[in-house]
Amino acid sequence: MRKYVVIITLMAATAxxxxxxxxxxxxxxxxxxxxxxxxxHAYEAALEAVCPAGTLGDPxxxxxxxxxxxxxxxxxxxxxxxxxxxxxWFGAMKAAKHEKAWQAESVWQRYREGGVQLAYEVExxxxxxxxxxxxLASTLQHLKLFKDIGDLSLYKxxxxxxxxxGTRMSDQYRLQAEQLKLEEQIESxxxxxxxxxxxxxxxxxRATDAPLVLPDSIVLSQMPVVEWGEIERNHPDLLxxxxxxxxxxxxxxxxxxxxxxxxxxxxxxxxxQKRDDAMVMPDMNGMDMWMGMIKVTLPIYRxxxxxxxxxxxxxxxxxxxxxxxxxxxxxxxxxxISQRLADVQRKIRLYQxxxxxxxxxxxxxxxxxxxxxxxxxxxxxxxxEQLNYAFSHAEARAQYNMIVAEFEKLASLNMKDxx
Length: 419
Description:
By secondary structure, this protein is α+β, with helices and mostly antiparallel strands. Helices cover about 70% and strands about 10% of the residues. The longest helix is centred in the C-terminal third of the chain and has 69 residues, at about 305-370.
């Protein structure tokens, strides 16, 4: 019992923490996005087409009525009713059903492809929001530093004899100008973040002012380890092309079998009246009759069948070539991901080291500025460099996570595959 309590507690805690996570937003988008829902309905429609393809055609009922009875040897024929059922060649219906089943599989993979692409777009917009938020936080932090330096500069100016000792009133104006630039940048970043929030909500197909919970900083994602063989087995585009190839194989088989004779089995019932002058077979005068029927088609016009088979064979070759080309493209993308990931990792380390160095430098420069050995221009230049590196560091970490998301898209890891 205790074991189950622990499991339930862990599941509940996980659900609470996942409520505001990126994964939760991805799942919401997959549930609500109209394009993905449209692809799902297309898959359901394709499934509905599988069963009718493997069933017999409707039987034919024929009724012949004679306003004036037709005189025959055994009576006068008044009415005849016939029922005929056509049967295609052996295996034709099975091949038709396989064709529709593979077509439905191809549509399913297109649905998966749409979901994988949507999840990737959600991740892209998510990290773009986080970059803007980190830039906003860094700018606010630097604005506070500028205000502290301004207070220090004003204090030095008021307490210095005749305004000297390395500080001038013009420093105050320069600091005010820098603060105005930062305040304008803050307003611009806030406006950009608001727009990104609204666009993100629209991607989730909900109200633009719906609340979003964003983490305080960008945490680097873990790069999954997936071999190429697994990617090839799971990629929806490749699986869709495979399904299309199998569909054309079944289509060629169906065309071949439909080009063979079709057999019809039926029965006919004839309603007769008695003849007044029956001279032949008087015992059968006016007797109703049953008759069995067999009908066979003669497929002598072969051009249309040959054209259908050739078309299916050519489309199968087309999908095979498209599959090989798509494999090459995906492998090239995989190589590019590995190279870009290594490159952005180096940038992250470099920007972090530069930020640490400049942070220590600014601490020393503030003391040196108070002592009058460093000018305000040096501090402003260093502050700008540190802010630029903070921006670059945030962009590099977001770029790293987006590359990981691109790999997850390539490996189809960002959408759960359930029919």
